[in-house]
Amino acid sequence: MAATKLLTISIALAALSASAVSIGVVFWRRKTRADEEKIRELEKSLKAALQNCGAERQGRIRAQQALRKVASSSDSNNSYPLAPIAITRSCFSMRNGTPRQPLIVPLAKACLVFDPTRVPPASLEGLEGYSHCWIIYVFHLNTNLDKSWKHPSRSKFKAKVKVPRLKGERKGVFATRSPHRPCPIGLTVAKIDTVDGNKVFISGVDLVDGTPVLDIKPYLPYCDSIPGAMVPDWVSADNMLAVTSVNFSHDFCSSLNHCWSRKMEKMKKKEISLYTSPTEFQNLIQQVLSWDIRSLSQRIRPHKTENSSMNNVTLEDDDSEEELHFPDDIVYHLILEGLNISYKIDYDGNVHVEKVDPCIPN
Hints:
Blueprint: H1 2-71, E1 86-90, E2 109-114, E3 132-138, E4 160-162, E5 170-172, E6 185-196, E7 199-203, E8 212-218, H2 221-224, H3 233-236, E9 245-248, H4 252-266, H5 278-289, H6 296-300, E10 332-336, E11 339-345, E12 350-358
Parallel strand pairs: 9-12
Antiparallel strand pairs: 1-2, 1-8, 2-7, 3-6, 3-8, 4-5, 6-7, 10-11, 11-12
């Protein structure tokens, strides 16, 4: 009797286990089908999204092609949408005195201030790993910029320009670095000192204050430096514009210290200070004036400037072979960091720096 009850219980447990397994299999099949349906829905959604992305990409490509077609049409004057991404804060307040080439004045400093609405600070990450960078900019102080908007037939573009090294001899504009070009775009290289947020501090510059910057690119020695590159003889004669010496008057240091103190007191907190001391600034003056920064006409003929005595000077016609006699008291001016440096240069190319004064606002 006990054996019969035990057998009955075993059969009941076996039946219960079989039912549980059957129920589990049913639920597993239902869950599997539900998962498969979800997978199919997700695959369908992914396919639709990819199709939409492809359509959007094709739309962008067609729009870009249409834009290029319009830009290359004669009606648009072959213009392209370029705008400055940064403005230069330079030690050179005016064109006069700004070096004609980069790196010849190592202490010439500037700061490129990037527009955060166009260039996020993250765009400059990694630039500090390079020693130098190329800078593409606009010759914004050209006096003939209006010609850039005229049709070539009416722009009166000059194919040849006077070369300072050749004392007025003309060369084809594309054989020179003249700023007066059909497209007033300049290319220069500078040493990267520091990168701070949206500011890049550079040195060895030949950029005037306020210069608009279109782009910067890292300098790559392995491909940007060309061993054995050739230049004409008149370019390789580097000493043609070098002066004999630069000398400072006895009172110059005291006047510079006075002007520097006043400049530091008036400087606002947000303004950028490119130089740390009067001594560093005086070294900058010496480096700038180590080259004859006068214009070609000033070197050929004396210009009447402040404190100049022109009574005994006779200006001859350009074709005259008679030698001109230059007075000793012509005073020239160099504007750096808003300070007016007065100097003279004698027959032998010796520069005599006399004084420094604050610039008088216009």
